[in-house]
Amino acid sequence: MVVVCLTRCKQCNKCSQLNDGRVCCLCTVGQLVDSLPEGEPVRGVTLLAGELYLLRRKERDHVEVYDVSSYRLLRSLTVPGIHRLTDMTSCEHNHCVYIGDYSGDDFSGCVCRLNVRGTIIRWAVNGKPCGLSVNTAHNVIVVCVHVRKIKEFSTYGDLLRELTLPDDIINPWHAIQTRSGQFIVCHGELGDAVHRVCMMSADGCHIDHSHGRQPGSETGQCNRPRHLAVDDSEFVFVVDLNNRRVTLLSLTLQYLGQVVSRNQLKWGPWRLCLDTDRRLLYVADNEWKDDKWTAGRVVVFRV
């Protein structure tokens, strides 16, 4: 969680006035706390009921559940019928995790709902569900990358609404809905002219704020932004895959600093999960080798 203060920070003696009148301390570099065991690539990481869930790409035991304090492996779960895992999120209100999956050249996909008792429900999303999140209404927000849509489902898979993103948002990967109803979306893939994080209107029709444009490594740029997290003060954490960093932005998407830098990672960041109560950031760090993801782990940072 970002420290919000009204005076200069005693640690770094810096502060930055934001557009909304708050002051954000700039000592934002995360402190490395621990790392979980290396294994198959990590496709998702989330928290539920005081436990840490990892989604790995392998033949069985796709979900590993760890103690959130000791990082001891508690159990492993297999989700039948899984093909190509994409992401995972959780909902404390409904006591379940949601897993994205797709198969085939047409990228037909589904979401699997796995509750704490092990019961599985799945529903089709008519697209590749590359990014999942849960909004304040406890509904599931699914980004379908190739059709450039955000879809909202109930916890049992009822389609509540569907938004088509503007034409200049190509290859959207993840979206989070803010308390005010707006959507924060990250988009951009190799070969795309624009790589950004955007603040969209609640109807998805126009962009209110953005960070980035042409892909690059400067502070105002990003290169394949892949995943997002938002804390209680609505500061935005962004996985910047090709730059191998996690960037911190304000709610209006002003650049604040790097939370995780490339020298704190072994490979490349892919997914992240923020524990606001413990002020911990879990980053999925995966290895890309011989044109495929070959290994992964989760690195824990105090923020």
Spans of at least 5 consecutive residues whose pLDDT stays below 50 are 1-26
Order of helices and strands: EEEEEEEEEEEEEEEEEEEEEEEEEE
Q: Helical element count?
A: 0
The residue fraction in helices comes out at under 10%
Strand content: over 45%
For the termini, the CA-CA separation is: 6 Å
| CATH level-two architecture | 6 Propeller
The CATH homologous superfamily is termed TolB, C-terminal domain
Number of strands: 26
Structural class: mainly beta
Spatial order of the strands in the main sheet?
A: 3-26-25-24
Quote the average pLDDT. Answer: 90
**Overall number of domains:** 1
Q: Specify the biggest β-sheet.
A: 4 strands, antiparallel
Overall, the morphology is globular
CATH topology: Neuraminidase
Rg calculated over all Cα atoms: 18 Å
Top-tier CATH class: Mainly Beta
Describe this structure in words.
The chain has 303 residues and is an all-beta fold. The chain has a single domain, classed as Neuraminidase (6 Propeller), CATH 2.120.10.30. The chain is 0% helix and 51% strand. It has no helices and 26 strands. The strands form 7 sheets. The protein has a 4-stranded antiparallel sheet, with no helix packed on it. Strands 4-5-6-7 form a 4-stranded antiparallel sheet, with no helix packed on it. The protein has a 4-stranded antiparallel sheet with strand order 8-9-10-11, with no helix packed on it.
